Amino acid sequence: MARFNPNRREKSEFSEKMVDLRRVARVMAGGRRFTFRATLVIGDKKGRVGVGIGKGTHTALAMEKAIRSAKKNMMKVPLTQTYSIPFEIEAKYGAARVRMRPIAKGRGLVAGGAVRSVLELAGITDTSAKIISHTKNKISNARAAIEALKKLRNIK
User: Which residues form the signal peptide (predicted)?
Assistant: First the structure.
């Protein structure tokens, strides 16, 4: 007879990739209090992707909250038959600016940083992406990539 194990997580249909994990300090009367902030990208590599942020006293708790947040913010991306994007797009989120364009079949995914994580987990290949802004903020770059993919959803 199989028993319920609360520590064992069931296998999810989504792949996950950690974009950022930070230790955040708050100064209190007795000293510093440390918490963790996790930023995760989840996707099924078939056109669904989401970015989530979670904060908690332990890294595992922060990651669990980030996964829940990413599932809430999940979106569907329209893909071509070659698993690329249909046309060139550019988007801005905060200080981050991202440009994506389809490239010839077989060239692969040409992107860096958080934008690459978002595109990989969305299942997009044969696409070139460039972070145009000078910000190194991974959360803003990931959200700018999501904003760009939302523009694909609006214009069909």
Answer: none
Q: Residues 6 or more apart from 154 whose CB is under 8 A from it?
A: none
Closest CA to 101 of 70, 74, 132, 73: 132
> What are 144's two structure tokens?
């700018």
Amino acid at 136: K
The model's pTM: 0.86
Render pLDDT for 29-62 as a digit per residue (tens, 0 to 9). 999 999 999 999 999 999 899 999 999 999 999 9
Q: Is the dihedral of CA 133, 74, 72, 65 positive or negative?
A: negative
Domain ranges of the chain: 15-75, 77-154
For domain 15-75, the question of CATH label 3.30.160.20 is answered with yes
Whole-angstrom CA distances from 120 to 34, 58, 92, 108, 111 are 32, 27, 20, 10, 10
Q: What CATH number labels 77-154?
A: 3.30.230.10
Check for a shared fold between 15-75 and 77-154: no
